[in-house]
Amino acid sequence: MEVSSLQNGMTNFQSNAPPVVDANVWGLIGLKKGNKRKQQKALNNLRRDTKVLDLVDDIHNEKQKRRIAFRGVKRQLTLWKGPVLKNRLADQLIFPLNDTAVTLANSEESEFLRSKEHIRASKIESGSLQGKLYNAIYHNGVDIIKPSLQDKVCTEVRKKLLEKLEQREKERFLLTRFAAKNKRQNKIKSKSFHRHQKNRLLKEYEKEMESMRKNDPRAFAEHIMKAELNRVKERASLRHRGGSKFSRLQKLRAKYDAEARNAVSDMHERSRELTKKNNLDDSSESEDSTVDVTSESESDSDGSLFAGSNSAESESEELSRKRFWWYSVRFISLKDFGTSGTVDFG
What we know:
Layout: H1 2-16, H2 25-29, H3 36-49, H4 58-78, H5 81-89, H6 108-124, H7 129-137, E1 138-139, E2 142-143, H8 147-186, H9 191-215, H10 217-237, H11 245-254, H12 258-275, H13 280-293, H14 296-337
Antiparallel strand pairs: 1-2
GO cellular component, one term: small-subunit processome
Family: Belongs to the UTP14 family.
Keywords: Nucleus, Phosphoprotein
């Protein structure tokens, strides 16, 4: 009874067992070890995912093979229609016929003949770039490129690459040395050193701006616009205001340091200059309106005196306004590089 139940279980397992690649006895023995639940889950996944292959249809396979072979033979035979028709229309035939008009596509001879025909047709078209190239390379079927010329070209290319690498290494070395110099200077805590450095940079900057104004007015105007943009950003940051954290710290230091007191006074002066409104245009317009309101007789009698006084006042105001503007531009432009030790003239 037990033997029959065991046989029935084996038959059921064989009928429902999934296909296993390279199965052996030791693999079946190894199923006794490990977690049975995981093994059952793996078997169920195999049973669900695998598909049983269809039965082999020998008749259908034979038909398919014959159909493919027939197509290949038919394709080869159709190549002979042209030569056969040519031989039929010929007046005289000399045997054996050494005709190479038809060659099979998969033969080495056909590949060689096809490439040779392509080169010959390209050499005939001497006007095209490919024809000129083939005429230069293939001369009576001989390769005219000399190995020495190729070695020379490789040497030149290698030389240019080495020069480019050397130039890049030199630029990298200069950049690292310049960065190390700036870092070393920024670590210096001497106020006199930084003051002299700032004065030197200011003189260099003024000289550069003067040369730019004379030689390239367009670049000078762009630089002025950039300085004005920096001024607007500084105004938006409100750092010049007296109630900011920076100003409070400066005031705290000003109790014990004369330099800090001077910095605080400069800061307040800067704040007054920035918050001051320039009403020069409004005043000039009001003066013009008062002059227009007066009678014609007064304008005739005192016109020369008013014109002279107004012109002198306008010239002085314009000169003071230009001086203040140029001072503002220099101060704002130097603010960015005063601590870093570098000047940006862009």
